Amino acid sequence: MSSHCLIIGAGVIGLTTAYALLQRGHRVTLIEACREVGMGTSYANGGQLSYRYVAPLADAGVPLQALGWMLNRDAPLTFRPRLDLQQWRWCATFLAACRRSVNQRNGQRLLQLALLSQQQLHAWQAQSPLADFSWRSNGKLVVYRQPQALSRAAARRVAADSQQVLNRQQLLALEPSLAGMAEQLSGAIFTPGDEVGDCHLFCQALLGYLQQQTRFRLVEQC
Prior knowledge:
CATH architecture of the domain at 1-47 and 198-222: 3-Layer(aba) Sandwich
Distance between the termini: 29 Å
Largest sheet: 3 strands, parallel
Helix content: 40-55%
């Protein structure tokens, strides 16, 4: 059964949601406060489509780090202890998820979700005449100066089968422009399947397609 769906916010999430709903036969009204789509976080997004770089928040090092975060207003995780049974139940569940076995299992789940996202983007690119948004599939190269840092990164790979650990010689063969600082480098992790794209241009490309659909309406500066 077809529904009329209302979406608030025309960033990349709102626009992709609108696209998916239209694909399923629904009517969509998209409301945006700005004069254009993709003018918030989506405007200057980093543009990395790093599907194989996933990490659960619950990690063995997080509980100790959280003590310092409590004093930092810009911390990635804010925690204010209070006499609340639900809060402490959540804390117990979070700490249990920090165990290595659980962390690895959750990492694999996140990886599968990320790869599904990549498959969906490729399907949309094949199905719809989206305007160019500077999409490229050049892979991702993360360079390390310290051998210890490279070893830790190699050990923590979630998608080890599709991420290559390169020594210095292999790194320079792949990226010769780094030859001038070769002595400062230990190696790299190369992920051939990762991609890049301009998030703001992607938002505009999606809008261009959506506005051709009779079941879509955009309300701006609302």
